[in-house]
Amino acid sequence: MIRRYMLPMLALAGFGFGVYTVIAGQREVPVSKPIAQPAKAPFENFVAGSGLIEASSENIMVGAVVPGVVMEVLVTVGSRVHQGDPLFKLDDRQLQGELAVKQTALKVAREQLTRMKSLPRPEDIPAAEARVREAEASLADMKNQLQMRQSVTDKRAISEQELRQAGFAVDAGEAKLGEAKSQLALLKAGAWKADVAVSEAQVASAEAQMAAVQTEIDRLVVRAPIDGEVLQVKIRAGEYAQVGPLSTPLMLLGNVDTLHIRVDVDENDAWRVQSGKSAVAFARGNRDIQTALEFVRFEPYVVPKKSLTGDSGERVDTRVLQVVYRFTRGELPLYVGQQMDVFIDALPLKIDTESTVARKGA
User: Fold this and answer.
1) Cβ proximity of 231 and 59 under 8 Å
2) If I label 217, which of 57, 144, 148, 297 is the partner at 20 to 30 A Cα–Cα?
């Protein structure tokens, strides 16, 4: 009974299921509606490209000149800064100590120069003049004694040796008087020009050393290179700031009064794009947010395409011509780093009719 009735029934049921599966598979799957309507090109002939918004000054990746520990971050994201405004400050305690030493050395050098230029001291001159008068008086006494000995008529009353000693004493007195007068003249002449020049050079050297330390301290304060807005801050107080190219910049800065958009145009369509042509950019996710673009420049070097979407079907082996446009953001909710769909008014595609006819004939 099982073989007679059950097996045919199972076969019939399997056949029916197979027919149902085939019929169900042939039904048309309803097309899902897109989350957002794609943008439409406003030009008859156009080139489409992906654009990336950037600051008009380009995005400046601010870095430190020397490595060190960050002591203070002076700005926040969105802060408006002017050229030269401090952004963040590194640890400068060691250099501040060196600066104090150099300032003291400069003060000593300046005091020495002031002392050198103030010579002679008024209170030193009377003493020097008194030594001159003393030497004159002593010389006069010696000359008087020599004359007295020379005036003795009886040569036996005084020896030749005494006369010579009196003459030598006069010579010594004259030498002492000359020395005293020279010392007085030297004192009144003041500091020697060469000594003043040496003191001035010492002051200049001390000033240069202090300025060098001050420069090193100033290098520890990272300042804004342009007027702009702080777009990103990736450094905090207490963190170690490295130098050189970094995958994540310490701080991102740019001028966002006017925004630029960098459009990647496939190298196959590069010949169709001309300078000065109109272009329109649409925000992704909302085609109602759009803005007209003004041509700025071509980047004359064609570069490899960068994958921005991460889509596995996106080609990354192509090269692209980068075209830069500008626009005023105004009240548009557009931000630096945002991707946009860009359509550029371009030359029409050319069809080589001769080659087409040749291919048909072949």
Assistant:
1) yes
2) 57
- Structure confidence at residue 53 (pLDDT): 94
Cis bond upstream, residue 120 (ω within 30): yes
Give the whole-angstrom CA distance, residue 124 versus residue 120: 7
Residue-wise pLDDT tens digits, 44-101 = 899 999 999 999 999 999 999 999 999 999 999 999 999 999 999 999 999 999 999 9
Query: What does DSSP assign to residue 4?
Result: I
Question: Where do we find the tokens 């395409």?
Answer: 305
Q: CA separation (Å) from 194 to 92, 197, 296, 340?
A: 39, 5, 63, 73
The answer to whether the predicted template modeling score (pTM) of the entire model surpasses 0.85 is: no
Backbone angles phi, psi at 319, to 5 degrees: -115, 150
DSSP one-letter string for 251-317 = EEEE--SSEEEEEEEEGGGGGG--TT--EEEEETTEEEEEEEEEEEEE-SS-EEPPPSS--TT---S
Q: Which residues contact 85 (CB under 8 A, 6 or more apart)?
A: 74, 75, 223, 224
Task: Identify the residue whose tokens are 């500008």.
Answer: 326
N-terminal to C-terminal alpha carbon distance within the chain: 70
- Do strands 319-327 and 286-298 pair parallel, antiparallel, or not at all (unpaired)? antiparallel
